[in-house]
């Protein structure tokens, strides 16, 4: 698409070859790197952005991802080659503040269309309540500027907000690649229907439950909880790797009794050790609630919608849905 790429230098080709493109082309529609195809080349930072690009772009896009399946996106580090190669794409789609290494690389990149999903909906602060328990506040501040509370980046777990982002992505694609604008618009409408159906399923499925409280490994589900009238209590706050204090564990054990909590949820990409310890000590069950940061062989679904449907079933069981 990009005229600049017709004259791609031998150095760039060599760099791309040296990469092996195991990371960047794992989910491409062909074997080329971002920036070397005749399609609209999009680099997505991690799975939820990749899914949007593929759903909206359809046959007109070549989507590559910076985060390999099974890799914890918060921990992603980019090589200089990946950063250089990103500049050959037509567009990059990312969520600012989730992956600092990606934010830095995009700031330095001269890619023409930079789409920050965080600007396409309203981010909120869900982390401060959990972090203030037991002196764990520091974990949240690692992700914020100037020591202020960080905004929760896990916005894709709310189908309504995810649909808002999808609309903004579609508009960016239409502007950057006007030849295929009609198709992008139609694809976005089809995706909006799919996400609308998911929203209805969650609303109906969680309307009447024995309890509204659920425990998670880290605070990824604040938007989902807010959307459907639930209360998320996270063991570790926004940072999946931080360790909870003994006071926080004790508090959760007491709350489990008070609120009729049956289950401690953990996720596929992060250690389940803390969740299982808490569950054992408090006599609770464990189950998976997937924050959809990546699809792997362990995922309970093949794509975003499939995994979200599995999440709904897990919540219905844990909360005692009627």
Description:
The protein is of the alpha/beta class and 322 residues long. The chain is 43% helix and 11% strand. The strands form 2 sheets. Strands 2-1-3-4 form a 4-stranded parallel β-sheet, sandwiched between helices. Strands 6-5-7-8 form a 4-stranded parallel β-sheet, with helices on both faces. Residues 2-32 and 128-147 have low confidence and may be disordered.
Largest sheet, in brief, is: 4 strands, parallel
Arrangement of strands in the largest sheet: 2-1-3-4
Q: What is the oligomeric state here?
A: single chain
| Category by helix and strand content | alpha/beta
Principal-axis shape equals globular
Number of strands: 8
Computed Rg? 20 Å
Question: How are the SSEs ordered, and which strands pair?
Answer:
Blueprint: H1 3-6, H2 10-19, E1 40-44, H3 47-57, E2 61-65, H4 80-86, E3 91-94, H5 100-108, E4 113-116, H6 128-132, H7 137-141, H8 159-176, H9 181-205, E5 213-216, H10 222-227, E6 231-234, H11 246-259, E7 263-266, H12 273-282, E8 285-288, H13 304-319
């Amino acid at each position: 698409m990009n005229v600049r790429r017709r004259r791609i230098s031998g150095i760039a080709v060599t760099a791309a070859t040296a990469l092996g493109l195991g990371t960047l082309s794992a989910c491409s529609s062909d074997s080329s790197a971002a920036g070397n195809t005749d399609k609209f080349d999009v680099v997505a930072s991690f799975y939820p952005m990749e899914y949007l690009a593929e759903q909206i772009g359809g046959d007109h896009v070549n989507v590559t991802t910076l985060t390999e399946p099974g890799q914890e996106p918060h921990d992603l580090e980019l090589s200089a080659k990946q950063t250089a190669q990103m500049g050959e794409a037509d567009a990059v789609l990312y969520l600012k503040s989730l992956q600092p290494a990606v934010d830095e690389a995009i700031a330095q990149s001269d890619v023409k269309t930079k789409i920050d999903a965080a600007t396409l909906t309203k981010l909120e602060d869900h982390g401060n309540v959990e972090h203030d328990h037991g002196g764990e506040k520091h974990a949240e501040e690692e992700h914020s500027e100037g020591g202020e509370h960080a905004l929760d980046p896990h916005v894709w777990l709310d189908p309504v907000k995810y649909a808002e982002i999808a609309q903004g992505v579609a508009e960016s694609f239409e502007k950057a690649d006007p030849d295929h604008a009609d198709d992008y618009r139609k694809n976005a409408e089809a995706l909006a229907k799919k996400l609308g159906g998911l929203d209805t399923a969650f609303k109906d499925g969680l309307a009447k439950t024995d309890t509204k409280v659920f425990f998670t490994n880290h605070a990824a589900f604040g938007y989902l909880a807010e959307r459907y009238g639930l209360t998320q209590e996270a063991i570790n706050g926004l940072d999946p790797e931080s360790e909870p204090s003994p006071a926080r564990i004790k508090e959760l054990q007491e709350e489990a009794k008070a609120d009729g909590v049956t289950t401690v949820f953990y996720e596929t990409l992060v250690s389940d050790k803390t969740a299982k310890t808490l569950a054992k000590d408090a006599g609770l069950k464990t189950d998976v609630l997937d924050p959809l940061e990546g699809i792997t062989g362990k995922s309970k679904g093949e794509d975003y919608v499939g995994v979200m449907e599995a999440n709904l079933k897990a919540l219905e069981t844990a909360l005692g849905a009627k």
